């Protein structure tokens, strides 16, 4: 008996919004049939309203759960680049555990940790490892469990629960290779409590490290600058579209841009290569001024992702009516969840 | 750390941090296999009967072939037997004829001699016929009938009566189970010769029949 093929659902949940896409299947080749966004910042969204958002996108067919591949940004997440002295050292799990503990202050018992090959994102098999350049990524187990529980409350069964930070870096890496972008790209993920910075060069991760402060550090400054009564008011104003931050932006982001300058400057001195592009993910559309401020301050060009052609190269097509031209880079994380980056580069962009 | 083995390696750049032990069981009880089971069973039954029928047809075909071969070989032997049987039948008819000949109660040549001996002066016998007949429809015991016809001429009509009496008295016609019945008739005198042509009919019938005839007559 012929059974209709089940649809695929991909979800990227950040603190700002839920980005979702219904596809023809869960694995490429696939067709993106519909995309939808549910803003979370400043809106009061309970489980019921979020579930109703998903029910408008996919047919639950009376079931409690819908299987999906999800990307999340759990609090305390990390992405760290590490270059060992030799591959033989990498083969020793105790050595790596020790590095995580001593150098990065990551408790391997309390955290989920994945070890990837920094060159291509391949899942490392310690017994057969051929690289000394590694990327550690993960986050606290309790935070991942909380994200998983949240999804279940929404009626979403997360068959895959990925760290969107890492998946997005993979997407940028693949896009850089596909487009033949010359020179390193600064990837910058800024959220409330922290930021994660990565430098991607020719599809490989050269730098990945967290910044211990995020947007939350801006609100006291904004409160002072505008004479607001409290930080909550500052935060509300920050996410509203009512105020033009173009003039004040560099001042608000000074601490952040200094951190970025320090990292990029060190990288450029160390490698002799000049960073020319910056990629910023996650941000809601009304914070585009942040990306512009960063790119202006650092003198970097913002990577404008040509989503449609990139997806085509990944065997993902867009159905009629799915418009991606003006989606922006914050959607790269969602589309990266659909992608298989294991191919050796695929087709090359012009 | 996230456990990794070759079986569940992650796609590049996309490790999975899902804690499967914390996920609910959403496996549905699938019943499609029951439908498949029914169809498979029906198909197997159909195949079984089809094969069984084919096998029976095959064995019957074999049996028919064997029987035809047996019939063919038996037909030759049967033909020989039939031929022999026909020969036997023909031979047996001859035996029956011979037996009948020897079983006849009266011998024609002996009877002729006796008639001649009894023939009185003045009576000539021109013709003597002896006939044995078999009546299938007659009751048992009277199926065989013997009749004798004499004809000739007699000078004196009384001589014919003497001849009849002499035959009756001679015991010539005394046969077990049969009783004689003699009828004689004279025709008118021949005017040219002055003698009388006569006919005599002697019939030997079973005694019961003769008794019945007598009872009817008397």
The CATH topology of the largest domain in chain A is Nucleotidyltransferase, domain 5
* Beta content of chain A: 25-35%
Number of domain modules of chain A: 2
Counted beta strands of chain A: 14
Mean pLDDT of chain B: 82
- DSSP strand tally of chain B: 4
* Computed structural class of chain B: alpha+beta
Quick tags:
heterodimer, A: 350 residues, alpha/beta, Nucleotidyltransferase, domain 5, six-stranded mixed beta sheet, five-stranded mixed beta sheet, 12 helices, 26% strand, globular, B: 218 residues, alpha+beta, Alpha-Beta Plaits, 2 domains, 4 strands, 50% helix
List the helices and strands and how they pair.
The complex is a heterodimer of chains A (350) and B (218).
Chain A: E1 8-13, E2 17-23, E3 30-39, H1 47-57, E4 66-72, E5 78-83, H2 87-90, H3 93-102, E6 111-117, E7 133-140, H4 141-153, E8 156-163, H5 164-179, E9 185-190, E10 195-201, E11 204-211, H6 219-226, H7 231-239, H8 249-252, H9 254-271, E12 277-281, H10 288-298, E13 301-302, H11 307-313, E14 316-318, H12 332-338
Parallel strand pairs in A: 1-4, 3-14, 4-8, 9-12, 12-13
Antiparallel strand pairs in A: 1-2, 2-3, 5-7, 6-7, 9-10, 10-11
Chain B: H1 32-103, H2 108-118, E1 123-134, E2 144-154, H3 157-170, E3 178-186, E4 196-206, H4 207-217
Antiparallel strand pairs in B: 1-2, 2-4, 3-4
